[in-house]
Write a structure and sequence with these properties.
With 287 residues, the chain is α/β, with parallel strands linked by helices. It is built from eleven helices and 13 strands. It has helices at residues 2-6, 9-16, 20-34, 50-81, 90-95, 97-107, 120-129, 187-198, 212-220, 233-236, 267-278; strands at residues 39-41, 46-48, 83-88, 112-117, 134-137, 146-161, 169-170, 178-181, 204-208, 225-229, 241-247, 252-260, 284-285. The strands form two sheets. Strands 3, 4, 5, 6, 7, 8, 9, 10, 11, 12 and 13 form an eleven-stranded mixed beta sheet that branches. Strand 8 (178-181), helix 8 and strand 9 form a beta-alpha-beta unit. Helix 2 (9-16) crosses helix 3 (20-34) and helix 6 (97-107) crosses helix 11 (267-278). The chain is rod-shaped. It starts with a helix and ends with a strand.
Length: 287
């Protein structure tokens, strides 16, 4: 196209930032592939042949379509870079993510974050399939299909009804308490049950709830107390409950970010993870 427009190998080569012999060689290769001559060459001029005149509109159309396709791909790539698809377990989603999203929005006001609150198995499935950029939660199990990155550890606390003063308690102090909890297959609840068994602490059987706010509401009503990670303190502040440090021993639950194995962790996701850790207050970033 450049050679046809300028009727000169030299000027076309200059515009395309290639050497004149290089351009001539490419044209000879194209003529060999098409099995026809595209240009008549003389010592003073270059002109299209009849075949070249016929082929020129096709070349114009093909290059235009390529340019349009590249523009469309560039727009898609730009949009993908400006969007994060995040999956989180219900406890994380309801207690930390609102503040984390607000902090991230201050850093990247033009990036759209889409949150899906899902069960752990669904998060694993969607991260592996590429439908989510990352998942956040207490993923105790690992998988070769995902990369698990420890973000923070949050100590367990004892939550009771009423606005009493917070006081440190030991696991033995929970004896005979009616403990409300998360579902038995929840990793947080499994850690709680494990340490009750190890300390031989007998507690009253309480109800189990899928959603954090249901659990906190039931504690507020006096149905029992609960042992949960310290990061729920913000959510607990909306209820008439007290949060007590739990010691002897101090037990922390690890929380993770999972991404698809082999998928590069971009800067936006790194910033979102940092905001998540920051909003934990007492949560400690993993080293």
């Amino acid at each position: 196209m450049a050679t046809a427009r300028m009727s000169s190998f030299t000027r076309a080569a200059e515009q395309l930032h290639v050497t004149q012999p290089g351009l001539s060689g490419m044209l000879r290769e194209l003529e060999a592939q098409l099995d026809c001559r595209l240009f008549e060459r003389t010592t003073r001029s270059v002109a299209l042949t009849a075949q070249g005149e016929e082929f020129l509109p096709t070349a114009l159309r093909v290059l235009k379509e390529i340019d349009e396709a590249l523009l469309s791909m560039g727009q898609i790539t730009s949009e993908e870079k400006r969007r994060l698809l995040i999956g989180a377990t219900p406890v994380i989603a309801s207690s930390i993510l609102p503040d984390a999203c607000a902090a991230f929005a201050q850093m990247h006001p033009r990036v759209r974050v889409e949150i899906q609150d899902l069960e752990r198995s669904v998060i694993f499935e969607r991260v592996q399939g590429g439908a989510l950029d990352a998942g956040f939660g207490a993923f105790l199990e690992s998988s070769s299909a995902v990369r698990r990155r420890r973000l923070m550890a949050s100590p367990l606390v004892w939550i009771t009804a009423g606005h009493g003063a917070a006081r440190p308690v030991g696991w033995a102090d929970l004896a005979e308490e009616v403990l409300l909890g998360l579902p038995p297959d929840n990793p947080i609840q499994q850690v709680v049950e494990q340490h009750l068994r190890e300390g031989q602490v007998q507690v009253g059987a309480g109800m189990h709830f899928n959603h954090l706010h249901t659990l906190l509401g039931m504690v507020e009503s006096g149905a029992g107390s609960s042992v949960l990670p310290d990061f729920v303190r913000g959510a607990a502040g909306r209820y008439g409950v007290s949060v007590h440090p739990l010691r002897e021993p101090l037990v922390a639950v690890d929380f993770y970010e999972i991404t698809k194995a082999g998928r590069q962790r971009n800067d936006l996701l790194a910033d979102f993870g940092a905001c998540l850790v920051q909003c934990l207050g007492r949560g400690r970033p993993a080293r």
